[in-house]
Design brief:
The chain is of the alpha+beta class. It is built from three helices and four strands; from the N terminus they run H-E-E-H-E-E-H. The chain has helices at about 1-10, 35-65, 95-100; strands at about 15-20, 25-30, 75-80, 85. A hairpin with a 5-residue loop joins strand 1 and strand 2.
Length: about 110
């Protein structure tokens, strides 16, 4: 998976890859200029996420609350035929969404 990700980043011009002829062959990866420029907004997003995780978890807990579920039924148009169906409430898809800190538990 790492190898595939690095190849995609190389293709996009964000990473430079150099093969070092040795046994076994070694690879050296480094950020290109655009890759280094991208680090600043990515770091800002990571910092924002870390600072706002409690608010995000509280919002998820409120949204996933059993008391809220009957009110969350939505009508959704399906496919090209425009058939309306009743959509049941969305359940958390990750274990992390189910394990809330006591400070944000409903």
């Amino acid at each position: 998976m790492l190898s595939l990700t690095l190849k995609v980043l190389e293709r996009d011009g964000l990473v430079r890859r150099r093969v070092i002829p040795s046994v076994p062959p070694q690879l050296e990866n480094e950020f290109s200029d655009p890759g280094r420029e991208l680090l600043q907004p990515v770091k800002a997003l990571a910092e924002w996420t870390a600072a706002n995780t409690p608010r995000i978890m509280a919002a998820r807990a409120t949204y996933d609350s059993p008391l809220r579920r009957p009110c969350r039924r939505l009508t959704q148009r399906c496919g090209r035929a425009g058939i309306s169906t009743l959509v049941s409430p969305v359940e958390p898809t990750t274990h992390a969404a189910r394990r809330l800190p006591a400070s944000v538990a409903p």
